[in-house]
């Protein structure tokens, strides 16, 4: 199965550098953020499976390309040397690398999920202690803080957090836009998508594409939430609300805050804010149905290729 491991290695290399670079620089994702988000997920999943699959397929070449045969032989004869004559150190290292990489990625996802859940529980405990429910909206909490801040906390009972400073500076339409935006994040489970890409970045900190992918996906989920909010308010109100919420507020007097600023929410990325506001001020045309179908089909094909090879090896 030489062709299999070579093909997967080429695919893994393509998905590790040129494809993510091109996708992150492309203009069309702003026209179809949901489609682009699906493609990013396909790229990440296929990239990981291709790396593992290429290592497995190469390592299994002396073992009839069968993982079961390799497991039996390696477990029984690794030390006494009774292995196929073609077996070399590279094949053994390749098989070990596939196992280590797979376990590392899974453990990174599990650890990131556990740490994130713990941080959210702690954050929620602070918010419930220092805030009060918004009248008529028990799932929205009002925090006595002078800066304009809004965000959501996913959980068994998800909540949206607003600050007094935000409510003071927004008009009714802008406030509706902010609430609709944050609730869209919760309804569409954007936190789970972001968690997966955060785990990928943590697992491969030396991998520059992982960081680029995490940033691109963060922008796409914001655009998706913006599109949801646009169904309730006009683009101008939403753009103004985004600019206000994203305005710098690190110069707020610490004595005026009930907790440290970093305990509330990280400062927004100016580049992300600029892209979101520009998209609302000058809306790009929608991607055609045929183009969307082509992108989605490409994503399915990307995932199907390594899956098919891995199934064949089992």
Automatic annotation (TrEMBL):
Cofactor: Zn(2+)
Sample GO molecular function, one term: metal ion binding
Ranges for domain Peptidase M48: 124-197
Cofactor binding, note field: Binds 1 zinc ion per subunit.
GO biological process terms, semicolon-separated: proteolysis
The keyword Endoplasmic reticulum is annotated on this UniProt entry: no
Domain of life: Bacteria
InterPro entries: Beta-lactam_resp_regulator, Peptidase_M48
Gene3D superfamilies per UniProt: Metalloproteases ('zincins'), catalytic domain
CDD domains, alphabetized: M56_BlaR1_MecR1_like
Pfam families according to UniProt: Peptidase_M48 (PF01435)
UniProtKB keywords: Hydrolase, Membrane, Metal-binding, Metalloprotease, Protease, Transmembrane, Transmembrane helix, Zinc
Chain segments annotated as transmembrane: 36-60, 89-114, 293-313
Family to which the UniProt record says this protein belongs: Belongs to the peptidase M48 family.
Protein name per UniProt: Peptidase family M48
Organism field: Agreia pratensis
């Amino acid at each position: 199965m030489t062709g299999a491991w070579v093909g997967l290695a080429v695919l893994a290399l393509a998905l590790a550098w040129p494809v993510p670079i091109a996708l992150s620089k492309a203009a069309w994702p702003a026209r179809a953020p949901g489609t682009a988000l699906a493609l990013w997920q396909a790229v990440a999943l296929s990239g990981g499976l291709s790396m593992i699959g290429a290592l497995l397929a190469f390592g299994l070449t002396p073992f009839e390309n069968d993982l079961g045969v390799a497991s039996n032989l390696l477990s029984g004869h690794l030390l006494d040397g009774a292995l196929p004559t073609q077996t070399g150190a590279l094949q053994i290292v390749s098989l070990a690398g596939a196992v280590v990489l797979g376990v590392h990625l899974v453990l990174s996802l599990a650890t990131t999920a556990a740490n994130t859940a713990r941080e959210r529980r702690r954050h929620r405990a602070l918010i419930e202690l220092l805030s009060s429910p918004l009248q008529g909206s028990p799932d929205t909490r009002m925090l006595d803080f002078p800066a304009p801040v809004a965000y959501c906390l996913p959980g068994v009972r998800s909540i949206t957090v607003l600050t007094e400073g935000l409510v003071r500076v927004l008009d009714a339409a802008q406030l509706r836009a902010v609430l609709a935006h944050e609730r869209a994040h919760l309804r569409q489970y954007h936190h789970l998508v972001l968690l997966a890409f955060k785990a990928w970045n943590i697992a491969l900190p030396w991998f520059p594409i992982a960081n680029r992918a995490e940033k691109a996906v963060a922008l796409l989920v914001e655009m998706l939430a913006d599109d949801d909010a646009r169904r309730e308010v006009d683009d101008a109100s939403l753009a103004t609300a985004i600019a206000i919420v994203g305005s710098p507020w690190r110069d707020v007097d610490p004595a005026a805050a009930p907790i440290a600023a970093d305990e509330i929410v990280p400062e927004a990325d100016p580049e992300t804010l600029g892209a979101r506001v520009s998209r609302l001020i000058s809306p790009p045309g929608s991607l055609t149905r045929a183009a969307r179908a082509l992108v989605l089909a490409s994503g399915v094909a990307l995932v199907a290729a390594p899956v098919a090879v891995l199934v064949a090896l089992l």
